[in-house]
Amino acid sequence: MPAVRRPQWIANVAGLALMVLFSPILLLVWIGYSFQYTWLAIRLRLAWPRGKFALVAYTDSPVWGTYIEETLLPSISAHCVIVNRSTEGWKRAFRVESRALSFWGRHLTSNPIALVLLRSGRVRVFHFHDAFLELKHGRPSSLESIVSQFVQCIHERVGA
Within the chain, how many helices (H) and strands (E) appear? Predict the structure, then answer.
């Protein structure tokens, strides 16, 4: 028995109907995401002292803790809010930052992470986790690259 083929127009109408049905839902999701993005960026700007426009969050992991504290932070700490997530009660002390980290660092590999508030209102996110794992396995190029990009972003923001 030959397979029954439906006319192509049925598939087109069904696809169009699904698109019309789900587009308002997708629009609401996009509006909610955009609102939360903007609201968190504004709250960070208002919560931080003048001259601070970046957030660096990390833990006391033996893989990255010492590197961040001794190599990365000394050159940029004047412009950063620094959160050590290994400290007890850090979520109470850094409420807005905690929400921002939940929003922009949603996955498990979001530690260590850095956020830079750009003048345009956008937020640039730097995830260091994978680069540190590559360093642990003897491949430092990824870490050097992301640290260079982060420091350059800080310097551009200062100079702009």
Answer: 7, 4
CATH value at residue 84: 3.40.30
Going 146 to 38 to 36 to 83, the CA torsion angle's sign is: positive
Helix (H, G, I), strand (E, B) or coil at 52: coil
Using 70 as the pLDDT threshold, list the residues of the chain that sit under it.
1-6, 108-109, 160
Burial-class residue 78 by CB neighbours within 10 Å (0-12, 13-18, 19+): exposed
In a domain, 134, yes or no: yes
For 88, the domain range is 45-159
- pLDDT value at residue 105: 86
Strand partners, 57: 83, 113
pTM above 0.85, yes or no: no
Domains held by the chain: number = 1
